[in-house]
Amino acid sequence: METVSTNRSHGGTQGVYTHLSGSTGTPMTFSVFVPDHAPGEKLPVLWYLSGLTCTHANVTEKGEFRAACAQHGIIFIAPDTSPRGDAVPDDDGYDFGKGAAFYVDATEAPWATNYRMRSYIEQELPALVAGHFPVDMARQGITGHSMGGHGALTIGLRNAGRFRSVSAFSPIVNPLNCPWGEKALGGYLGPDRAAWRDYDACALIEDGAHLPDLLVDQGDADNFLHEQLKTGLLVMACKKAGIPATIRMQPGYDHSYYFISSFMADHVGWHAARLKA
Which of 76, 52, 55, 73 is nearest to 64 (CA)? Predict the structure, then answer.
C-alpha cells in the first residue's frame, strides 16, 4: 500500500492510498479519514460506496462527513467504484464499464477478469484496511449513494452478521427491473436472471435476507426516482418482510452531492448510535 496524500481536517487525518488489487488485477485507490484517538484505541468503521461515474474522490471532496466522523470517533472509508487502467475493458456509456461496476463479481467475458468489485469490497479491502488502520472490525457499518446505495444494501443484506448498521442515499433498490440494472447485471452476469437476485435488494429481502433496521434518504425531486431508483418497491419489500426501515422522502432534493452532504451528518450519527452500542 502506498500513500498518495494526507491532510489534517476536523481533528483527524484524511488520507488517500493506492495498492495493487489481487481481486481486480489493477491498481486501486481509496480514501480513509481517521479521527484523532488515544494510542492503541480501535475505532468503528463506516464504509461508503459511490455511484455511477464516481471515484473515491467525489465523497471525499464533497461529502462533508469529516466533522460528524470526528465528533463520533468513526473511521470513514471510500473505495473506488471499479477497476481502472488502459487494459481494463470499458464501454462507451456512463452506466457500464469503468466507473459503473455495480459491486458485482462479473462472470461474463471480457468483464470477468477485472470486474470483481464484490470480492474487493467484501474481502480484499477490509483485510488490507485491518492491517494498516486502527479499525475495530467487529463494529462496521455501510452506506452509499445510487449505484453505491445498491451496493451498500446488497452487501449489507448478504453479510447481515458483519454490519451492525446499513443506510443508503438514493439507492437503486430493484436493478432486476430498471434500465441501469438490466444493462449492468445482464452485461456482467449474463442472461440468467436468477443469477441477478444476489445483487438486488428487493429480491434478497424476498428470498429471506434480513436487516435489524435500515435508514434511506431519497430526494423527491430526483430525476432518476421513478425510472431507475423506485424507492417505493423497497418500502413495500421491508414492510412485507417486517424489516424496521426509516425511508425518508426529502422534499425538493435531487440526486447530487448537495443532497448527500445535507443528510450525511444524520447518517453518520445514526450509524454511530449502532456502532457504539
Answer: 76
Q: Residue 123 corresponds to which cell in the numbers above?
A: 474481502
Q: Is 273 left (phi over 0), alpha (psi -120 to 50) or beta?
A: alpha
In the annotation, is 95 catalytic? Answer: no
Q: How confident is the model at residue 277 (pLDDT cuts 50, 70, 90)?
A: low
What's the domain range around 120?
2-275
Q: Can you name the residues that pair with 18 across neighbouring β-strands?
A: 2, 29
> Which listed residue (56, 222, 267, 271) is catalytic?
222
For residues 6-25, give the mean pLDDT: 98
Give the count of domains, the chain.
Answer: 1
Average pLDDT, the chain: 97
Radius of gyration of the chain (CA): 17
Instruction: In whole angstroms, give the CA distance from residue 213 to residue 99.
Output: 29
Q: Which of 23, 50, 82, 146 is catalytic?
A: 146
pLDDT digits (tens, 9 = 90+) for 98-148: 999 999 999 999 999 999 999 999 999 999 999 999 999 999 999 999 999
Domain containing residue 45: CATH number: 3.40.50.1820
Q: Report the Cα 39 to chain-centroid distance in Å.
A: 29
What are the respective helix, strand and coil percentages of the chain, to the nearest 5?
A: 40, 25, 35
CA distances from 85 to 28, 130, 268 (A): 10, 26, 33
Asked about 271 being catalytic, the answer comes back as no
Residue from 150, 255, 267, 271 carrying the catalytic annotation? 255
Residue 146 appears among annotated catalytic residues: yes
Instruction: Determine the average pLDDT of the residues in 216-227.
Output: 98
The pTM of the whole model exceeds 0.85: yes
9, with CB counted inside 10 A (0-12, 13-18, 19+), is: middle
Dihedrals phi, psi of 252, to nearest 5 degrees: 85, -5
